[in-house]
Design goal:
heterodimer, A: about 110 residues, mainly beta, globular, B: about 110 residues, four-stranded antiparallel sheet
């Protein structure tokens, strides 16, 4: 299957700091998605990206679809305590038998200190 | 009301028992998925279904089976549960032609 490398694995930051995380793949992806999972809940879709170079914002969150189509980035500005959770990247390879399937990174665990 | 619901939310069972996890959705989506989450391993696909007559194996289907009873219902069965199937299980849905998946709240399964 497709390999997605998500980094960092965990982050410990102070409230108010900015956060950056990224995801890389060995294959070209046609869609990149970013999810957040709160403790005890299912992942919730934050941002969807559909074109190489696309930059999309959702409040304090900004995500980019890399030009090479093999990476994506998520930035969180001015972090607050409720940003705590696990952030997952997911990608779609629009080819053959994998059509419709998403491949997930292993997640970035974010901790925000007050 | 939640668009994707899973029952039960928590379950403790013994090795060798048969168990079924259920998923229902009101989003009207054709596609449904079952994932397993283990700490540090992210989400791994068990089975997926693109419509009522379509069932496909994912990365880790061994030891699991599924049934798509209707467009809105997709259940996951463990025929003979074993301890290393202890995990969080998530159901997800997506619309035809779209890649965004929407997740249920999860079932925490413990096999002793």
């Amino acid at each position: 299957g497709q390999q997605l490398n998500q980094s960092p694995q965990s982050m410990f930051i102070q409230e108010g700091e900015d956060v950056s995380m990224n995801c890389t793949s060995s294959s070209i992806f046609n869609t990149w998605l970013w999810y957040k999972q709160d403790p005890g809940e299912g992942p919730v879709l934050l941002i969807a990206l559909y074109k190489a170079g696309e930059l999309t914002s959702n409040g304090r969150l900004t995500a980019q679809f890399g030009i090479t189509r093999k990476d994506s980035f998520l930035n969180i500005s001015a972090s607050i305590p409720s940003d705590v959770g696990i952030y997952f990247c997911a990608g779609q390879v629009d080819r053959g038998s994998t059509l419709g399937r998403l491949y997930f990174g292993r997640g970035t665990q974010l901790t925000v200190w007050p | 009301d939640a668009d994707v619901t899973q029952t039960p939310r928590n379950r403790i069972t013994k090795t060798g028992k048969r168990i079924m996890l259920e998923c229902s959705q009101t989003k009207g989506h054709d596609r449904m998925y079952w994932y397993r989450q283990d700490p540090g391993l992210g989400l791994r696909l068990i089975y997926y279904s693109f419509d009522v007559k379509d069932i496909n194996k994912g990365e880790i289907s061994d030891g699991y089976s599924v049934s798509r009873q209707a467009q809105a219902k997709f259940s996951l069965s463990l025929e003979s549960a074993i301890p290393n199937q202890t995990a969080l299980y998530f159901c997800a849905t997506s619309d035809w032609g779209r890649y965004e998946q929407y997740f249920g709240p999860g079932t925490r399964l413990t096999v002793t």
